[in-house]
């Protein structure tokens, strides 16, 4: 990631993001991509979703199960190496290429699907 900031957005643009807490209930390495992990997450009343994330070089699939993470829940679905991703997790990224990737997590347990504002 670049140290340059992205273009300024309005509050309404930010408010359009539906950022929620999700609990990872399943995680497996993507069968056709060395950098991707396929996650099944619980978003409470929003149901379960599948998220494909490029974090495989920084996390093992088995260590992710049970973690709570922040996700953008209203991102349009996207195919990633023939598997649909139905959201995006949030992570801090250091370096280009990334040398350190850290998932954004709540500091205490909260209900899956809790909104983040």
Describe the structure in your own words:
- This protein has 2 helices and 9 strands; from the N terminus they run H-E-E-E-H-E-E-E-E-E-E.
- The protein is mainly beta.
- The chain has one domain: OB fold (Dihydrolipoamide Acetyltransferase, E2P) (Beta Barrel), CATH 2.40.50.
- The strands form 3 sheets. Strands 3-2-1-4-7 form a 5-stranded antiparallel β-sheet. It has a two-stranded antiparallel ribbon with strand order 5-6.
- Strand 2 (37-42) and strand 3 (48-53) form a beta hairpin.
- The model has no long low-confidence stretch (mean pLDDT 94).
Could you name the key traits of this structure?
117 residues, mainly beta, OB fold (Dihydrolipoamide Acetyltransferase, E2P), five-stranded antiparallel beta sheet, two-stranded antiparallel ribbon, 2 helices, 9 strands, 38% strand
Low-confidence stretches are none
Q: How many helices in DSSP terms?
A: 2
CATH architecture: Beta Barrel
Main sheet? 5 strands, antiparallel
CATH-defined superfamily: Nucleic acid-binding proteins
CATH C-level category: Mainly Beta
What helical percentage do the residues reach?
Answer: under 10%
Widest sheet: strand ordering? 3-2-1-4-7
Q: Which range does the strand content fall in?
A: 35-45%
How many individual domains? 1
Shape: globular
Average pLDDT for all residues: 94
CATH topology: OB fold (Dihydrolipoamide Acetyltransferase, E2P)
> What's the end-to-end separation, in Å?
24 Å
Radius of gyration, in angstroms, nearest whole number: 14 Å
Helix vs. strand class: mainly beta
Give the SSE string.
Answer: HEEEHEEEEEE
The total beta strand count reads 9
């Amino acid at each position: 990631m670049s140290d340059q900031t992205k273009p300024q957005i309005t509050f309404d643009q930010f408010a359009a993001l539906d950022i929620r807490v999700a609990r990872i209930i399943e995680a497996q390495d993507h069968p056709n991509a060395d950098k991707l992990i396929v996650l099944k997450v619980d978003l409470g009343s929003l149901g379960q979703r599948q998220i494909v994330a490029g974090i495989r070089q920084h996390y093992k699939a088995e260590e992710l199960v049970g973690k709570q993470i922040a996700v953008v829940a209203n991102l349009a679905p996207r195919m990633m190496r023939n598997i649909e991703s139905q959201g995006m997790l949030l992570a801090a990224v250091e370096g280009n290429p990334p040398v350190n990737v850290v998932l954004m997590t709540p500091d205490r347990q909260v209900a899956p699907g809790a909104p983040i504002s």
